[in-house]
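Lecture 7 notes: from sequence to structure.

We start with a single chain of 62 residues. Read the sequence below before looking at the structure.
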Amino acid sequence: MGKSVSKGLKYRGEVLLKEMPEHFGKDFEKNKAELNKIDLGLSKTSRNVLSGYIVRLSSKKE
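Now the structure, written as tokens:
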């Protein structure tokens, strides 16, 4: 089983994907790099969980 995603991270992921869809997609490493550039003040673990959640959201949209 994978890690669960908190409500706060889910909200951030949905907002980021809605506001900047050109920066995020199905590539985990690219999403992780973009989250580093934005500098949301996330820990390494939270950044990785959020990046994975964005990948999942991107896959659902298509």
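Residues 7-61 form a domain with the Diphtheria Toxin Repressor; domain 2 fold (CATH 1.10.60.20). Keep this in mind for problem set 3.
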